[in-house]
Amino acid sequence: MANTKGNGNMPNAHLHELLVDEMKDIMGAERQLLKGLKKLANAAKNPTLKKAFEEHYEQTENHIERLKSAFSNLGLNGRGKKCKAMEGLLNEAEEITEEFEDSPEVLDAALIAAAQKVEHYEIASYGCIVTYAKLMGHTEIKELLGQTLSEEKETDELLTQIAMEEANMGETA
User: Fold this and answer.
1) Does residue 5 belong to any structural domain of this protein?
2) Residue 8 lies in a domain
3) What's the distance, CA 85 to chain centroid?
4) How far apart are CA 160 and CA 52, in angstroms?
5) Is residue 1 part of a domain?
6) Structure confidence by residue, pLDDT tens digits, 128-155
């Protein structure tokens, strides 16, 4: 079942299929997230939060390019698969937006909570991929996607900062 063709001499080659599957999953998730971030930015009332969503949209485009490079490094195309987890997280974000759209003092806090759930999913996914790449000796993939992992963590920290300093304090635009 494991696809280790051509990888017999690679350390921990048994992880190859799992690495590729996780990369396909997060590629799909990142592409889905592009649409979700536009909706989050449009729904946000706080200008700092809106800007953070817009900046993360641009970062996400870079994340996709890094994933394409990682796939290329493995000799594969950068095709993703539908990520059911991201689909669920984005559906939840949409529900939150609808539920609190008439309460701007709560809406931004709710959007941050939804966005942080997305970030934590991405952090977990990239963390696994980086670990697999490291164990398999894929240094370039480890470094490329390790950079993305760091950015996802920074985004999560930024969202916490916006929540604690602005959104959860009832300040709106």
Assistant:
1) no
2) no
3) 11
4) 11
5) no
6) 999 999 999 999 999 999 999 999 999 9
Joined together, the tokens standing for residue 26 give 């997060």
Specify the length of the chain in residues: 173
pTM attached to this predicted model? 0.87
CA distances from 20 to 4, 17, 163 (A): 11, 5, 35
| Residue type at position 105 | E
3-state class percentages of the chain: helix first, strand second, coil last, to nearest 5: 80, 0, 20
CATH of the domain at 55: 1.20.1260.10
Provide the domain count of the chain: 1
Q: Domain of 100?
A: 18-169
List, for residues 16-59, the tens digit of each pLDDT value.
899 999 999 999 999 999 999 999 999 998 899 999 999 999 99
Tokens of 126: 């990239």
